[in-house]
Specification:
Two copies of one chain form a homodimer. Chain A is α/β, with parallel strands linked by helices. The longest helix of chain A has 19 residues. The termini of chain A are far apart. Chains A and B meet through α10 and α11 of A and α10 and α11 of B.
Chain lengths: ~300, ~300
């Protein structure tokens, strides 16, 4: 029996799996994320969330490939790659791989240090760029990520605690494609971290259980602890916080033109959208001591022209 | 030495007291709360915050009387009344007293039970009504309350966690007078709970240290704990949360006409603003088994006519 306090329910295995599928289908429909004819690319880390959403989308008949980025974070990256490849081959699914040290000449621990950026910041920038580029270059209709309710509530919480209104305006389960950026969708926002762990265990999906060693003690994990504390005091508080925001408050915050795609040009090195001559990713690559591979550069410049 | 981590400062006694006065003067000026010619009424509980703001306003030359409401919460109310009276007589200041059991025929523990309301809800409704009525009937220019930064941040946090946009629109350190309601001001919003306790100790002000016994475990105190947790992880987070809201987010939420003074009539029993024939306070009095004293009723109906 799986006990979901937030829903005041107990499920047997079969109904729990159906519950997860229903929540995902409901989210895809409610936010008009994508359809079964679309070609989807899911960003795969080897953790429970990304493997679960890949599995859920394959199970329910979507056309979905995976993308794995090897970040060069020692043993952690090696193991997570093994889980991603193993899942893909068990489902005969297509997994695209990008190897950061091999193709760009830097890894996250060393590159962040050389560029004097916090590791999570350098990693986020790197992944966003590579995911976006792969989705656009591959002609996918949407980039799917495995962000769950806990992730999204924690990001919303952090942005709310600082009242970062520009970020609050972008806090949606689906973002439309803009010049050079793919459509982005988060079909797991109705499901919690704990539910995703249970899903993987019940489906026999092996995933990397450890948190990334570079993330220990970061602010995002602190916000998750605070939200878990609130959830324990008042079950359902986390989902109410996130969904009441979407329902009642999100419309109060609008994306201004500042920094929006309207005013963006193209990076002269890689062709990605950029506010200056060189995009933030290419500046990071340079400061991290790496270099831009010729392949991606020419492809994106070509597609942007 | 008093160590204020949030301000990254240490103060000696003299400069700490000056710091408190400066913060209050700055708040009064910034939010245009009131002037030295105004007649002010401060709501006094006998706790540190209300006695501190009364003291700070008297010290800096404001014309300010106190109002104490005896709520009939056993030993707690008896002690708090003694502290309020003792402070008033030590400053030769005017203290108006309202005795809820004596004048309205109910106390908070029994009345809340009889009316089937949570004690904090019945108490809040009672105090708001009696404070408003006393300020309006007494012709005061503003009602001052001792809400400090911790109080206001906790209220904002609760309203934000539920995204209660109507309440978010009213979250300001000063509210203008509206038909039947007095102007309301909170000059302590730049000072914390801990700072107010230090202020009272250094000024030799005796106050009731215990929390109200009926409030134990309420949600508001839970929000304070969560905010203290965030503050410990990141000093200044609490003030940033509150003041960034006022600066960047408050303008996104506007007071709608629903339930606003525009559509309010007068309670047929006490003359206070009411959306129906009888105001929420008079309904509580009735359900709590009490009765409206003739004095207040006739006064307010007169002033509202």
């Amino acid at each position: 029996m799986i006990d979901l306090r937030r829903h005041n329910s107990n499920f047997c295995v079969e109904h729990f799996l159906r519950f997860c599928r229903d929540q995902v289908e409901r989210t895809i429909a409610e936010f008009e994320m994508f359809s079964k004819t679309d070609r989807l690319l899911v960003a795969v880390s080897g953790g429970k969330d990304s493997l679960a959403i890949w599995d859920l989308l394959l199970e329910t008949g979507y056309r979905v490939d995976g993308l794995y980025v090897g970040l060069g974070i020692g043993e952690y990256s090696e193991s997570s790659g093994v889980y991603a490849r193993s899942f893909a081959s068990s489902r005969s699914a297509t997994l695209i791989e990008v190897d950061l040290p091999g193709e760009y000449g830097y890894d996250i621990p060393g590159g962040a240090k050389a560029a004097r950026r916090a590791p999570c910041s350098a990693c986020g920038l790197t992944k966003r760029h590579l995911f976006d580029a792969a989705a656009v270059d591959g002609g996918y209709d949407a980039l799917v990520t495995g962000h769950n309710l806990d992730d999204e509530a924690a990001v919303l919480f952090g942005n709310t605690m600082k009242w970062q209104t520009e970020y609050l305006a972008r806090q949606a389960p689906v973002l439309e494609a803009r010049a050079g950026f793919p459509r982005k969708a988060k079909p797991l926002v109705r499901l919690s971290e704990r539910e995703m762990a249970a899903y993987c265990i019940l489906r026999g999906i092996d995933y990397i259980v450890d948190e990334c060693p570079m993330a220990a003690g970061n602010r995002h994990l602190g916000y998750k602890e605070v939200l878990n504390d609130l959830e324990a005091r008042s079950p359902g508080a986390k989902a109410d916080f996130y969904f009441n925001f979407l329902r009642s408050a999100a419309r109060h915050f609008t994306i201004s033109d500042t920094g929006d795609a309207a005013g963006l040009g193209h990076c002269e090195r890689c062709g990605a959208p950029a506010s200056g001559e060189v995009c933030a990713f290419c500046r990071l690559v340079e400061r991290a001591g790496g270099s831009q591979p010729v392949r991606l550069s020419s492809t994106r410049r070509g597609s942007a022209a």
